[in-house]
Structures are given as C-alpha cells and as structure tokens.
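Checklist before submission:
- one chain only
- standard amino acids only
- sequence pasted in full

Submission:
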Amino acid sequence: MTTRAPAPARSVFPALGTTATLLVTDPRALPDAEAVLRAELTAVDVTCSRFRPDSELSRVNLTAGAPTTVGERFAGALQDALRAARLTDGAVDPTVGNALIDLGYDRTFASVRPDDARPVPVPRAAPGWRRIVFDPRTRVLRLPPRTRLDLGATAKARTADRAARLAAMATGCGVLVGLGGDLAAAGPAPRGGWRVALADDHARPATGPGPAVAVTAGGLATSGVRVRTWRRAGRTLHHIVDPATGEPAPPVWRTVTVAAATCLDANAVSTAAVVLGDRAVGLLRSTALPARLVRPDGGVVRLGGWPPDSDAPAPGGSR
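Returned file contents:
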C-alpha cells in the first residue's frame, strides 16, 4: 500500500508593505511556523523600518555624523547590507536613503502619491557604503554626515532566510517563506521541490501555464521595475535606485530572478543586475549564479545554467 504525503499547508497575510507567504510540508506545523515568521517580521519592522519614527533605523539616521551604538539585530542587518554592497561592488548600497526620499518614496508605498506634480530635486549620488564606519565588536556605528540608510531590500531578504531556517528548526519539517519577491526554503523539501511560478508581480501571478522552477533549498529573489512605480513631474519612477546617480535605474530589464545559497545573496545580485542594466551579464557570469533576465519586450536571457522555461502550472509559492 502506498501512502501519499499530505499537501503543503499555506498561510498568506500582509507584512512589511508586501505579502508574506508561508508553506510547510506538515500541515500540523503551520501554527508554530507562522508564529516564528510573525515574530521575525515584527522584529525587523521595529529594527529596520524607514517609515517608523520609533524604529532603530530612524534613530540611527538621526545620529548621522556622530558615533552611536546599535543593537545586535540592527548590527546583523547592517553587516548583511554591507555584504551585499561588497558582493555587488556598490551597485546595491545602503546609503541611498536620501535619494529615495528625494524621488518621493518618503512613506510606505501604499501612501506614496501615485502622481505628484512637484519637480524632482536634482539627483545626487549616494554617499557610499565605504564611508560607513562600523566596529562589529563594539557595535559602534558612524554614518557620514547627512546620510540616511535604507536597509529595506536586504533586511527583507535576511528575514526570509532567518524565518525559514528558524521555522524549520522549530518544526522539523520543510518550510518555504516568501516576502514579496524574496523567497527562502529550509528543511526537507517536498518531493520534486517547491514549485515556484515566475511573474512580474508576486501579488498577481499567472493563473495558467507559465514559467516555473523547482526550489529545494536556499533562496530565490526577483527584482523588477514594473510594480513599485509612481509618477512625479510627468516622469515614471521606481524604487530601485542607482547609487552612482541617485536616479531610478534605467529599465533595461523588466525583471531579474536569481537563485543562490541564501535569499540575501540572491536579492543582492538580482537588484544589482537591475541597477547595472547591460553590464549585469558580466556580474552574473562572474558569480556563476543561475539567473533569468527579462527585457521590457519580453525577451529572456538565461545564465548560469538556468533551465528553459517550463509551461507547467506551478501549484507552490508564486513570485
């Protein structure tokens, strides 16, 4: 007699201005896994939110130019952001906070004015991550004067990694955590892996057959320029900023999806690829990470052994 493993259980709820998706291979483990995920989401919001005046990030930004001691969780998030900057040679840079504010992304995205008539301020390059002085031993941080950090992308990917790992440890089953375009898997995956559909917008995945991949462990991240957009002074702007210019990255790629050992690394490289535009192919080849890049006209470039698009529906997590 052959027994079939139970179908994965799922929980979906809003978090961090996006959608949190949790899947577990053992339905009985869903409440415990969800408790872990919600605790991690609460902690990262209190620590790293750019939109909460009571967050540690807001306090740190107010002390720019002077030394300040940060907590352990903030220190970990900062070190991960600096790792992303090193990995991408500064294409992903946590010092772009002022540039995002100047562009109009100065509040939660749901509250951003969809069409703002005010002129866009003259763009300025980010101060640069190399000017951050941080001692991991004492946790003393000094930002360049008038610098605002933005840890949004890397902190979200870090949270996906942590939540998946901690939930798998707590439950002993396979766990998949998706936070918007960031996805992390831990524990024993279901047979055939987690089937993940690829789409421009994680909140509006294709309902029929379309490109999909199987994920068994590690991270997958999709960055793109089609979803978080708004208009200002007649220009369409988006949230991925080139630190070298302070401007939104040119739309060379509609989306970039990267697989890596961690969601943090996948997120860093996918975001950097959007920033680098045509130079992204060189970065991706140097990392040897599997990647799928989609041009605005729908043309697809696959690198690092990314498989051909399958046309099978994907019943698992969606992007």
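Reviewer check: Helices lie at 30-48, 56-62, 72-87, 97-103, 152-171, 263-276, 280-287.
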